[in-house]
## 1
Amino acid sequence: MDYLLALDQGTTSSRAILFDHSGSVVALAQKEFRQIFPKPGQVEHDGLEIWSSQLFVARECLQQLPAGGKVAAIGITNQRETTLLWDRKTGQPVANAIVWQDRRTAGRCDELRQAGHAARIQKKTGLVLDAYFSGTKIEWLLDHVPGIRARAEKGEIAFGTMDSWLVWNLTGGKVHVTDVSNASRTLLFNLHTLAWDDELLGLFNIPRSVLPEVVPSSGIMAETDADVLGTTIKIAGMAGDQQAATFGQVCFAPGMAKNTYGTGCFLLMNTGARPVISKNRLLTTVGWSSEAATGAAYCLEGSVFMAGATIQWLRDGLQIIKSADEVQALAESVPDTGDVYLVPAFAGLGAPHWDPYARGALLGMTRGTTRAHIARAALEAIALQSADVFAAMSRDAGLALKELRVDGGASRNDLLMQMQADFSGVPVVRPRVTETTALGAAYLAGLAVGFWSGSDEIMAQWQVDRRFEPVMGAAERSAKRARWHKAVERSKLWVESQG
Ligand code: ADP
């Protein structure tokens, strides 16, 4: 029997999952690593710790390989944008990795925006000019780690996001690659040509010599060094975590979309073979590509900052529930929110409102308001925020969405899923396997090595756990969303500065 090994290098932990031919989880190992906060607004990871945690869980999974089994290929998925530079000769990082959440280059982004570069950057990369992406993080490292810029100019330094870093180490420093989906999060990659862009490299002062070679997301890109995992295994799939989850949800056709309900929400919609540049401040990103086909699948992406985190706040901040699982029963103890709205703009508002100065607001309370109404309003807020992103996507893509596929920790809340179906006006579908990120990486790799015969076989594997049909009528839906938007307006521009 053959198996697929997925390596899921996340923001707080490294995981390894072994999948069998039916796409079921056979073994799973997970290891957390340190979050380093040097200053307010700065977040770093130790590159060596990331590698050792990933290696540890990969080995642990391989030890659980059923007798006589072997690994047909490895697929990699990873936290996106997190930026590392290392010495090509020694393989040692030159500094800690700058994590996607890190805000240290926000000022540099403002400067580039004031100089009028944002529109051109969006056109080429599909991204909003923001500190979130790798471009200004690489520039920062080149300018702040002593002597590194000169060494980079001489070709001695390599840049990589975590996908590249893992492949480098898995191959004993022989292969330096990234896939199109990860490349599309750097601000240096041209979405239309699917290649690094010299104009953008010039703008961010980044020498081409540091960049990895860009490879398709599905295709044999390397082989592990025998010393690392005890045997050589083909590395055949690679994609950023949200793109991998979209692939794992088998959103293969234009108009198919998935929403992941974790701390925040990440909604991605497949828009087909051509990038759609957003008019509603969503991101355009490469979904994935395959060695077997030209071009790539593109996605629109929108994120909500506070989703499951709103439930954490009910638990830890308000202390009206003891665990996240209690929220559904509490919310169901009342028939509606009593016209109460919670706008969880605790960290400003993301897509499509984008207001860093917005703050949380609880509106419409009366003497009759109870914690149950607030709990219900919190769940509604998660669904209403996602409904706003979903609507913006449909407008941008000019596609009528047929359904929304869901995953992530909060997707097991049935009431929340029903609210989502009602507020978005489309069926919400929860699959049986919710390990969609790792599964997506496994699918990408498995397709490249013939482990699965093709997308039809994978589509047949994807199974519904539960489907939530909208029951709310159109008039009620639009009244509800209009009331929500009134509440959102009240939360906007609340603080005077972002500090
Ligand atoms: P992440 O990967 O971002 O850490 P997970 O996918 O593990 O997130 O989901 C955890 C989040 O889901 C937490 O924010 C938690 O509050 C929320 N959550 C967990 N169970 C429920 C539930 N039954 N109802 C609503 N939210 C939940």
## 2
Amino acid sequence: MSRSPLDVLSETFGYRSFRDGQEVLIENILNGRDVLGVMPTGAGKSLCYQLPALIMGGVAVVVSPLISLMKDQVDSLKQNGVRAAAINSAMDWDEVTDVLDAVRRGSVSLLYVAPERFDASEAFGAFLSSVDVRLFVVDEAHCVSQWGHDFRPSYLGLPAAVGSLPKRPVVAAFTATATPKVRDDIVLHLGLTDPFVLTTGFDRPNLFFSVMQMNSKEKDKFILRHVQKNAAASGIVYCSTRKAVDATRDFLRTKGVPAVRYHAGLDDAERRASQEAFIYDRAPVIVATNAFGMGIDKSNVRYVIHRNMPGSIDNYYQEAGRAGRDGLQSDCVLLFAPGDVATQRFLIDQNENQDDRQSANRRLQAMIDYCNTGSCLRAEMLRYFGETPDYSCGSCGNCAGDSGLTDVTVEAKKILSCVYRMAEKSGGLSFGKSTLVQVMMAEPSERSEKYGFDGISTWGLLKDCRRGEVQTMVDSLIAAKYLSVSDDEYRTLSFTPKTRPFLRGDEKFFARLTKKAAPVEREERTKRVRKQEAPSNSDTAMFEHLRKLRREMAAEQGVPPYLIFPDSTLYGMCATKPSTEAMLLEVPGVGTTKLERYGGRFLEAIRDFLEHS
Ligand code: ADP
Ligand code: MG
């Protein structure tokens, strides 16, 4: 009799219930059907194939693009007493042979391999034909698509590898990349047969998103304060250039924060050392370019701060999404300065292909809109990914109302009228942001002279405002879709279907002028309130106590601390304060293997803490 999925879930993985989507994917795999699971980072995709692999027997082959990902998964499975192994290019022949022997003996349930294993050596294909492969898993399956960001040609060879096996295994593919194009590519290029496709929503409810506009000095101060306030937590600070990485890291160091850095300009040794220090909880903060992150499965990243605005929401969501894999409340803060736009435009202009530039500009505009919107950030992001959220989340910087939004309804209407007057005066032409701002500020220019803008009624209507503020108001109108920007290089502004109703109506309009502007009173418009999972203050000390023990035990074994137990499990212990093995087993994340290995020491630590506090 094989065990039921729920039994395996609790005995082996220590969890009581499935997360969204897991159960149905597992059921389909167990019924022999190919599946494609599209779920956001941290949703728990691994479990969807690891668990059926254990029930199906034989060996499951898992294709994974990075050695670090494989290692993390194998170590994590071993912690739970699962027989998992990997073969990769960093191993010597003897090591590989040992693993293959173990597979042949039937003592490996999950075998992780890189996709190149299938093209480099036909011997591996032949080897697989000689063992009992029942499940073939393709993780990070978007790598098969040229539309994705991490295309890997070797993924295209996987269907042939599957086809050459004596008996076709169930094929299961997983990715966090949402676009329909990528999804179709996966089904096609991986040769999935009548797959069960599941796409869960892209929302990450435990992430708190916020945007703040500030200059470089203020960014330094903000980052330092945030890092110090969360001294016990792990965080990533992303910068858009190597220079900014170095400067930010140095700044934190001079203030006594042992931050490490990571970018493509460093030698391998420093990069590896930085990454390890961060993953093993020795350095609390890593300051990095976007070169850092792919293949990092560290589950207890509590915050991701972007010092600069990235070039697209796709990139932003992926980078910010490295926070809170364990499902605990985490912060994603985007620090924005208008100069960030110039940096991104410069990068785009390096591209020689006009179509590429155009689509990059469109993605950039969506990112700029995100920075300038006064409405729900979560909803704005989900809409970008094609969802249709009809709520304000109640738990982002804009919904929670601490984002320095100012009521600029009157100014906004003046700006829109000006767009109208300029078109009227010029015989129907549209103009870009800088001309518009010049007219609002009554700044003479060749163009204004040519078209006689200094004679229109809106000339200089905002000349008492600061120039930067007027620019921000225009950006906010674009973000709110009251103005649209042309796709060409001129980026001219024109009305949208929303513009006239706004001009006639009495809807208010908010912009994020400076971070100092007093927050406005906002009407209650939250439809969904999310519960905060953070621990109470009294538990924080206990958490620190257990965290210390976890770090010691991790060091003894040479594995990252979050593989011993994730943060969520430690919080679970703080909440229930178990005094017996049976109670400990009730804590999510404690399965039978970990209970056996670590239960004694954690129970002792809990007892010890309660006696001495
Ligand atoms: P993904 O690959 O989708 O980004 P992972 O498979 O790495 O996510 O899982 C993220 C975290 O969620 C891991 O720490 C994992 O142990 C945890 N997890 C997975 N399934 C469950 C569950 N049913 N209950 C609680 N935690 C879970
Ligand atoms: Mg994963």
